[in-house]
Amino acid sequence: MSSETPPSANEYIAHHLQNLTVSVGKGAFWTLHLDTLIMSGLIGLIVFGLLWFAARRATAGVPGGLQAFAEIVLEMVDTQVKDTFHGQSKLITPLAITIFIWVFCMNAIDFIPVDFIPTVVGRFGVSHFKPVPTTDPNATFAMSLTVFLLIFIFNVKFKGVGGFLHEVFTVPFGPWLAPVNFILRVIEEAARPVSLALRLFGNMFAGEVLFILLVLLAGAWHIDSVGSAFSSGVSMLGHIVLSVGWGIFHILIVTLQAFIFMMLTIVYLSLASESH
């Protein structure tokens, strides 16, 4: 019998919310979240590899299941782009598809049981592993800052440097209040990546915490000093019922957050391509 003291509820929660990190650079200037980088990269390779495979095998006849799914997603995203983006750019639809599918699949890792992936990687000596990339604010801010950069690129591309600067200093109060216009524009532009990142992170992080709390609430994880890892068949059944119920509801959240991130990106780039 193991003599190790089972973790308390606080220790269990903290363990699952801790990233696998490594410090690099002189004086440990950079701290990399390895689990976020590994999972997001792996998900991207698998998902877009499957889509590339489906595109290579696409036929004009009756499509297979993978091709049909890819065509449905493509048509849905393309419709949203045509309805929202009023400029001319070949980048928008591929960008929107990439954002929606990648964010959705990263969010969907939340459907895997809380302890499954950490237990698997734990077999290889990894003490803790946070598998859902979008529960890490570093990942969501990285994506939002990429959108932030594209906003400036689109502003300059469609309006020119002079037109962009003219808009920054004259909208909305005219040239006589240029400093006020500039301050308002800085606040407006800064709020966009912050809102994008925090909205996605906040919703996914809350969902992850709720899944962990459901495990504890149902007694599926041993949190006291007596008994085995699974307290009883009844508690395990309760854990399954609660997890399935929340998981079904979470499907909406996972899909909606990916859709919102995609749509806001399209809207921001559409505003950047238009004159106010």
The chain-level structural class is: mainly alpha
Q: Major sheet, described briefly?
A: 2 strands, antiparallel
Secondary-structure element order, as H and E? HEEHHHHHHH
Whole-number mean pLDDT: 84
Gyration radius (Cα, Å) is: 23 Å
The strand count comes to: 2
Q: Could you give the distance between the termini?
A: 71 Å
Give a description of the structure:
With 276 residues, this protein is mainly α. The chain has one domain (9-272). It is 68% helix and 3% strand. It has eight helices and two strands. It has helices at 9-16, 34-56, 65-84, 92-108, 116-122, 137-170, 178-217, 233-272, and strands at 21-24, 30-33. Strands 1-2 form a two-stranded antiparallel ribbon. Mean pLDDT is 84; it is low at 220-231.
Summarize the structure.
The chain has 276 residues and is an all-alpha fold. Helices cover 68% and strands 3% of the residues.
Describe the structure using short key phrases.
8 helices; globular; single chain; 68% helix; 276 residues; mainly alpha
Task: Spell out the blueprint of helices and strands.
Blueprint: H1 9-16, E1 21-24, E2 30-33, H2 34-56, H3 65-84, H4 92-108, H5 116-122, H6 137-170, H7 178-217, H8 233-272
Antiparallel strand pairs: 1-2
